[in-house]
Amino acid sequence: MRNDITDVTDDPLARQARWLEHYRPGLRIAEQGRVVSIGDGITWIAGLPGAAMDEILSFEDGSQAMVFDLTEELIGAVLLRDSKTLTAGAKVQRSGRFLSVPVGDGLLGRIIDPLGSPLDGKSQPAHTRWQALESGSPPIMARDFVHQPLYTGTRIIDTMIPVGKGQRQLIIGDEGLGRSSLALDTVINQRDRQVYCVYVLIGQKRSTVVNSIETLREFGALEYTTVVVAEASALPGLQHVAPFAGCAVAEFWMQQGRDVLVIYDDLSTHAKTYRELSLLLRRPPGREAYPGDIFSIHARLLERATCLNAAQGGGTMTALPIVETQLGEIAAYIPTNLISITDGQIYLDRDLFAGGFRPAIDIARSVSRIGGQAQHPRIKAEAGHMKLDYLQYQELEVFTRFGARLEASMEAVIRKGRVLRQIFKQERLAPLSPTSQLAWLIAFNEGLFDTSEPDAIAGLLEELEEALRHTRLTLDSPREEWVAAVSGPLGRASGNNEG
């Protein structure tokens, strides 16, 4: 697993021949330690005075560990591979290597663990090279402004909370509100858009892992996606390095000038795993018992997602980290840390979910700090002040609950707001194309939904989607052609409603 190895030959005789070719006789001094104790995924080791942080250690039974803590007398290491024969007293040697993972186009469509071993029952994936899990984020001079849209296929996000290629957008909310569904929709929507995807599953149940993989396979998204899995039964050390492994796989493609989307599902579990390892290794706890460096752990992971400038190849890595809240507490330690690191957040609200508004995205507490820079000019122009208008509608709707009488202009705002709320409702695993997004935006701004009852909106949107399949309109087509195209089906429906 050397970083300079580019030959992917797996023939043992060929590897032995290469080793003999480069072998040079000479005096070699090696350090040897021994296991003092082992348990709960960590081990304490005596000896090895030259060991460095994050160095890989090899045990005589074939197990592997990574140096995680250094004290005056002992080395604390987290296990990455273990066997039933590993016990106290076992011999340990330094490898002189640091964690790396195989990367390349051969990983597309594959399910691997954080060390690059296949989990899909197939052979070892072909790779181009080994990529270090830990590396510095690109310097400021190598970065460019985020200026290209990354379409999620979700109406409410692509119009009001746009995501750009190279952005870090947090998905935050309680368990069971559809955070992973939003991420899966986004991956599925990248089909035929030349965007490679990396989906990292951290500490998830096996049933959840299988369902996610089967969903990607069912919609044909697995062919351009690499899934990195460290399930709940995996060693804590593997769960800790899983997001860094996924980042390394995505980083290689970004360095090749490609667009990549990486999803971390989820970083709350990752933080809990890091807290567990740190407490077992007797590190001093901080707020909520998390170690003091938990912020830097997530910062150095997410800072690697960026948009490179043309001199660096122009590649992008977009990160969608997922974090869990408890009872909607957005001000908890880990959520606030990640909010301060990322470029915005998509907040899912339990009350909206219970009320049947799905995806249950709370516009008031969701934001994209990239804003209109990550939108196509046509979509940006049509979306306009829609977010502010929708927030105004939510404020006015409160007064209607008390039976207050409003002016006619305010009644019109409330009616349009209710129509817009129905438009924003969307089934999971049904992402929309950019042209579909522009179509409903133009139809809404032209008032083609104004006379429709809210319950009829879903059917109108289906008619509009069907009509678009028979056109060749693009985002750059003249607005007059778009108005004519959307006025056909919706104009007839509007006339029927009036009649």
Account of the protein in words:
By secondary structure, the protein is α/β, with parallel strands linked by helices. It has 3 domains: 31-97, Beta Barrel (Elongation Factor Tu (Ef-tu), domain 3); 101-374, P-loop containing nucleotide triphosphate hydrolases (Rossmann fold, 3-Layer(aba) Sandwich), CATH 3.40.50.300; 385-498, ATP synthase alpha/beta chain, C-terminal domain (Lysin, Up-down Bundle). It has 15 helices and 16 strands. The chain has helices spanning 12-22, 155-160, 179-188, 206-218, 236-255, 267-280, 294-302, 333-341, 350-354, 377-383, 386-400, 408-424, 434-445, 457-468, 479-498, and strands spanning 32-39, 42-46, 55-59, 64-70, 74-81, 91-98, 100-103, 111-112, 129-132, 170-173, 195-202, 225-230, 259-265, 316-324, 344-348, 367-368. The strands form 3 sheets. It has an 8-stranded mixed beta sheet, sandwiched between helices. A hairpin with a 4-residue loop joins strand 3 and strand 4 (64-70). It is elongated.
Summarize the main sheet.
8 strands, mixed
Structural category is alpha/beta
Helix content: 25-40%
CATH class of the largest domain: Alpha Beta
Proportion of strand residues: 15-25%
Number of strands: 16
Q: Indicate the mean pLDDT.
A: 90
Shape: elongated
The structural domain count equals 3
Tally of separate helices: 15
Rg over CA atoms, rounded to whole Å, is: 26 Å
Uncertain regions: pLDDT < 50 for 5+ in a row? 1-9, 495-499
Through-space gap between termini: 73 Å
Question: What is the fourth-level CATH superfamily of the largest domain?
Answer: P-loop containing nucleotide triphosphate hydrolases
